[in-house]
Amino acid sequence: MGVHRILMVLDNYYPPDIRVSKEAAALIKNGFNVNLICWGKEGCLEKEVSDKLNIFRRVKVDGFKKIWSVFNYYVNFVNPVWFKELDEIVRELNIEVIHVHDLPLVKTCIKVAEKYDIPVIADLHENYPEAVKDWMSSERGLKSRLYNLFMPFRRWRKYERSVLQKVSRIITIVEETAEHYVKDCMVPAERITLVRNTDLAENLLKYDLYSEIIEKYNGYFVTTYIGAFGPHRGLEIILKAASQLVEKIPELKILIVGGGGPPSYENTLKSLVTDLNLEGIVEFTGWVNYTLIPTYIYISNICLIPYKLSNHTNDALPHKLFQYMAFSKPVVATRTRTFSRVVEGHNCGLLFPSEDYKALAECILKLYEDRNLALEMGRNGFKAVREHYNWHDDERRLLELYNKIFRL
Questions:
Q1: Cross-strand pairs, 227
Q2: What is the pTM of this model?
Q3: Domain, as residue range, for 20
Q4: Which whole-number Å values give the CA distances from 375 to 198, 328, 331, 370, 371, in the listed order?
């Protein structure tokens, strides 16, 4: 029968992308030939094989090509530059399935797939139209005005409903977004597969721990956020909560590990640190290598996810939650539908109302004063990852989906 050939499509740089990496590894391990086309930076390898994943990188275009591709996308949600690249690689590699990550390139992939009569799997990492609403709410200037004029929320919703009815299968990360695709996008439930942002605890625990980081923060009560920046992530709420705690927790250390998002937002956060006299208490590490993340979680007493509540974040269930839980760390997070289901459902942390920094401070203080409660919640989180939120289950569902497509 031969090896079945899959093309994953990522409208971003690779690495890093934890979800793409896990899914590709699972498929490769089970005998599929997996190829990935993604963006690359100047000077990067255009073709590379990494852990048996065939990676094809394309440098972003400038000048007239960029204007032309943006204009076309604004008009009909098809990117001509991506179409040409996909068409070539599908033809040359005799690709049998296109597996596209996130909503923006779904229609472009459908157009290519129709040409070769092959199926498309839409792997949706989040409720994208709602995410766009969150991202653009903080943008200012001409770019924001043009985007909101030509790509308003209602267009994204209409586009989502249209293209998701045409794909062969949908992969989603949480039950709540699956309900949205059935109810709002009229997608039959049997065409939707749940593949969550879980991991295997043993995968995370296998990494070496860096002694210099452990020694640096020895003796502190470390409260940590790990991930990307952006106004919808609510990082300023952590800083305001810290200002309530400096006298009650003298050994307090707040670590903000990560970066990205609008540069103005990070500048606002750093200005707030100065305004609240939190120098020496709050540290921004910037982006760190993924291999360092386990050490930062290991040294933490509490791990945070302070998202601002929206239709986007209400259905979010990020990798960081399960990473925190895998290290037996109590989680303090915003009260959302998904966090309520996981964190409260398994008693592995505390929740607070969106943007209520005083309530966040109270949660941190409660876990500081009651170390036995913190230990119990951490153990509950580890148990939940082992028994309910582990990659074995999600990998199995991914493989069952592909076995159905290829009728194996």
A1: 258
A2: 0.91
A3: 5-198+390-405
A4: 22, 8, 11, 9, 6
